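Here is one chain, start to finish.
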Amino acid sequence: MLTLGASLFTQAVFSQISDPAAFQAAKIDTLAQRLVRENRVTGLNLLFTRNGKIIYRKTFGQAAAGRPMQTNDIFRIASQTKAITSLAAMMLWEEGRFLLDDPISRYIPAFAETRVLDAYHPEDTSYTTVAPHRAITVRDLLRHTSGISYPVFSADPRHNAIYAKHKVPTGIGSAGNLDSFVQLIARQPLSHHPGEAYTYGLNIDVLGRLIEIWSGQPLETFFRERIFSPLGMHDTYFRIPAAKAARLAPVFSLVNGRFELRKTPIYEGTDPEYPLRGGIIPSGGAGLSSTAEDYARFLQLFLDGGKYKGKQLISPATIRLMTASQIPAGVPAKWDWPEFAFGLGFSLITPQNQSNGPLPEGSFFWGGAFNTHYWVDPVNNVTGIILTQEYFPASFWDLGFLFKNAFYTSLEK
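Its structure:
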């Protein structure tokens, strides 16, 4: 397996790229410059690696008025948190703390009472429920087949209304504590019987609470001791310390066709500056902020067989399991591209969906609600990270696809 070049990943600013002859950067530069010029993004922070070396790292545009984007800016990575939480859970799986098909009610008894939505009455948001056909399992959480939905983001207006009625937060900067949040999730009706469909939802927030139960540690402590410190991820936090507050990239939203600094609440009334605030739920599904370099270290772990600087954080066998398709044949997945596939923590490129873009079979990817994106490509030993901070863009996935297209048509074999 390949390992990261220590000299590259200890520099604060990278003035050169590794093996520039193997990568033609002009197409990436042109795309990024055009997106900024056309006001499709305010600023971009891009980092691409190959064979454990950084081959491209540049910023474009502004992080805030009068302040250019910097390579060490910190970004709200939202659902990119999910991959970290999934890895943490699988570390505990390796230790025998649970089995993937254990019912989660064994560890959080409130889920023994969770029911499935039956009839819904939109005029007053009342509803009836039925008993689930089977219990929610840990595997269901990791692959989003539990039936737990999302507030605000759900494509199902019934669940948006029910969650709003019961004040279920998104986990993105939401005030509260993790245990109470998960107990509230357990009281909501499921969108379908466990295992019968893929529904993107608050599953990984529940998984974060399970990590606390299995490990006996707060989620952030487990992350810090078992993942962040070993990997040198020193800029990844649920709450950014005051000394680093100036590096937090602000949130922008599109107003009348132009991006403006977001000063009003986001999602369910969250302060956009939540990474600097106390009393915030440590959401395993969406709560972290990080840098491009830190997240590159995390992604490289999957290409290096789970080893970093001679220490095995997770086994190659577990990585193979996480990156294997976990959605059973015939189970519907309501998503934006055909033949959708999901592993234990991220979406997968398979022979059935490879024609959707340039990523080769075996790659995996995901993103975050503020228009951040990542991918890992084991065939070419590549990782890609695209960071910006836009509030709920309508064409969310486009940015990731645009840069993947430009990257792979610039990469020489």
